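It is worth pausing here to work through a concrete case rather than discussing structure prediction in the abstract. The textbook approach is simple: state the sequence, then state the predicted structure, then interpret. We follow exactly that order.
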Amino acid sequence: MFRSKRPREILNEIKWRGYPMDECTIYYLHRGAPNDTKIVSGSEIVSLGHSFFTIEHDTSIPYHRIRRIEYGDDVVYRRNTRR
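Step two, the predicted structure:
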């Protein structure tokens, strides 16, 4: 579906190709949250920066914390976890 492989590039591709951002779900590392994961909808994204994306209430999240991106029913990005 998307040509990009990295979270920042995927989110930019969704934005600039005119796909609806509200179809996007982002799972990211947030220590202290249940399972150390928080989930935000693409509709909550205010801006996409170089190193961070910003959601409502001026919360900046670094791209390297993104663990998974879903678009609709498809997983378009999954970070490989090392064990």
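Step three, interpretation. The domain at 7-72 is CATH 2.30.30 (SH3 type barrels.). The chain has one domain: 7-72.
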